[in-house]
Write a structure and sequence with these properties.
The complex is a heterotrimer. Chain A has twelve helices and 16 strands. Chain C is mainly alpha-helical. The relative contact order of chain C is 0.20. Chain C has one domain: ABC transporter involved in vitamin B12 uptake, BtuC, CATH 1.10.3470. The chains are: A alpha/beta, B mainly alpha, C mainly alpha.
Chain lengths: 388, 336, 302
Amino acid sequence: MEKGVWMRKFVSIVAAASLVAFIAGCGKKEEKQKEIKVGILQPLTGPIANFGQKTLDGIKVVYDKYNTLPDGTKIKLVEVDNQFDKVQNVNGYQRLVSKESVIAVEGPLASSMAKAVKRFAEKSKTPTVVQIATNPDVTKNTKYMTRACFTDDFQGKVGAVYAIKNGYKKAVILFDAAQDYSTGLKKEFEKEYKKDGGKILAVLHINTGDKDFNAQIAQIKKLNPDIIYAPIYAPEGGLFVKQLRENGVKAPVLGGDGLADVSQMTKLAGKAANGVMFTDHFDAKKPPTNLSKEFIKEFENKYHRAPSAFAATGADGYILIYNALKTCDKKHDLTKECVNYEIRHAKNVEAVTGNLTIDPKTGNPINKPAVIKKIEGEKAVFVELVQP
Amino acid sequence: MSAKKYFSLIALITVLYVAFLFLTNASLDFYTITVLSNIYIFVILAVSYNLINGVTGQFSLEPNGFVAIGAYVTALLILTPGEKLDAFTLAKPLDFIAAIHIGNPYLVLVISGVVSSLVALTLAFPVFRVRGDYLAIVTLGFGLIIRFILINNPQISNGSSGISGIDDFANYIMVGVVALITVILVYNIVYSKFGRAMKAVRDDEDAALAMGVDTMKIKTLAFVSSAFFEGMAGGLLASSIGSISPDQFSFMLTFQLLVIIVLGGLGSISGSIIATFLVMGGMEILRVLDDRNFEFLGLHGVPGLRMVVFSVLLIVIMIFARRGLLGDKEIWELKK
Amino acid sequence: MEFFIQQLINAFSLGSMYALIAIGYTMVYGVLRLINFAHGDFMMVGAFLVYLFIALLNLNFFVAVGFSIVLTALIGVLSYKVAYKPLLDKDAPKISLLITAIGISFFLESLFNLLSNQLVGENTLAFMAPSFFSNRIEIGGVGFSVLNAIVPVLTLLILGGVLFILYKTKIGIAIRALAFDISTVKLMGIDSNKIIAFVFALGASLAAVGGILYAIAYPSISPYMGLMIGLKAFAAAVVGGIGSVTGAVIGGFILGIVEILIPGFFPSLGGYKDAFAFILLIFVLLFKPTGIMGIDFEKKRF
């Protein structure tokens, strides 16, 4: 008994000590010659895995073409899955910066995730390009966070303008109180809608993960709005629309790019998904630049389907980074500071969703257009393009 | 051990430990420091959770609730009124919530602990009327109710969006020191007459009652003490992550702690500490299992595999080694 | 008035699903005095298996349902044989059983999370049920789906079936005897193992049915859905009287009514929907721990 007990004690201490040493040891890594790493932090599994996967697809298509710098240095992509979980997200970011020593990070997708890494981006001075997260707070008061897509200010505005233009003067807003993305859009839509003379009958809320919306739908039915603005994500959006129609409410539904996952919407809502409209970043049928056209062609060759907004913005994020790397490489200044500067001062960089010019003061792109799309028969149909 | 010997031992440990903290802080990379910091916070949690579960034998699932309370109290106190108005995106904060501000992080942490223990005190009366399995369910329900309150009262907590921009006063050294203080305090509780009474309640509550132990008081004392440290740890977590939201304090947190204290041995303080390193460190290492690029014997890493392995480990430990690593003894008592 | 009836129908529908899961909980508690935390996850397993059978093997819906129920029952029995039985045989303290139950719960959740991510690509899936379940029927201004009509009837039939088994068959008598006094039963030479295994199998298959019905009604499934629903079903079982099958069903209906009607009439309380189960539970535990059917465990069973 004594020997066995002593063994356990010994083993426990040795195990614990070696674990600490192991983790510490893992902190030092040799970097291969002539290679530079770019971190990709996206939700590859979890409830919005679809968004993340599609983003990665888009990145890979541009990466295939643009993966070497003028002086021969190879770019290596380091993918990290944040599982759309706050803690994994922050850990993943720190791992990329601290252990992998990446020179820049693309991602994370979604405003709640992006906001969470802000502090670490600033602390570690790592240029971070958030390719698709629309809440304005993501880039507010930062030097190292840059965004490649439009913000909620714009998206919410577009939604409101479109609604009023088409005669929908009374609206009910249904937003997801658990998502920064959703609360941001709700605020902007409200502002613009009221400004343009629309009347908000009620603001209702749901929480991410909710399955039963009968209570909210009962209220909507009573209020009888012209339109329902629902800037929520597809997993909830699909169920909501299905139950909405089942309860006999006919008012059209308008949402943001969170509903852009048409396959999920149709799977969840079936026919009820038809007619749902949303604001989005990109439509493959209306490529705005030559690079877009090329990108769409290559994407379709590789994956046998048209690229979504996620793929397009994913590509754009990478293009911004690549462009900056190229410029800094030519200047013999491949440092985070240079890369960040170039990203922040990007001017008319030809990209997939348009030409990117970043406002160095805000970190947001100027003049990004939005498209309005409508779901019809399991596909998203282009309705109109809106320029700011 | 005589008082003099005891205090000199404590002093020695403290000096060595603080030196260790400074050394590692200077030499390890940022990521590893963050991981270690997190481990220290979990040591605080494990050691205090063990107090109610392992030492007093009351199967409670409360930590995520008290951690949440501590985290939110810290966040609301440490942010300035201006910062709070900015941070509350869903609703305007209540006037007194917006106005209240305490700048001293140590004071804030202690207050977080105190608030948690007050809640625990109120809960203790109804909760300890039910035994065994029911206690588990009720404490689990408590954690859930806390979550609901946080989500549905945006004027207090900013609802599901949570609060971000929390000062990061919880640096590596500070967390390490607080962990040491906690361990010393808990050790003193366990090896006092209260601790002996707690173990008596665990071993045979009826006998303890018959011997004149006020079991209700002892159980409440354990519960309230656990809550205090868990609340403080919550504050440290809030500061080190920087942003908090209700879904961070789910049952998952309690589950992790459960695995840790069972592995270490219910009732053993040193066991909990060692197990925290093993489990948290192990989870970091097991992370490779989730990585698609990982290959072992031709099998690829797969996302989500880590958690599967983790749960299987718990089941295996329960079936074959349910007394854990150290049983209910401390590491220096093992020869008995 | 129509609104009220409409909501009442929804309530019975939801309540039935809780009831089906609660029956299993209450029976396992009756024989083993164990709260099987993993039980809620059986409902998730039931729903996921149907999805996977359809998506990967292209089986017909009803065939998939059949296979799923059988497979879930097997998983139930397995969890007993592999995890609980060894501990029971060793006379392990209650706390170990509870911790193991949590471990199994977590294992099932992570396993299906893994499978779902690997086999389908994401973990929040759109459950595909034959569309006729969603067809609406209108009677006197009140609309409900075919599913809403079927579910309560099905549940009552199942309840009848379970009661029949318990009171009119040999194995039922054995189950009730076990719940009464497990040591005496063993002494009488009855193989308690087989009986307990049967209880697990029965409970798990009912949970699977509940899960599948739930997935038809709310077609977005995720590996962690069983946790919350299981807890609520447990609350329902306690409210109705833990150990009583009829109580479980009554408790389920009560919970369904509370969850649907209260937000229906007081929309501002909608956010607390999920909390009602626990509030009910705590009330019952504080004031009448034996629940509605009021079974005192030292005297009667089921």
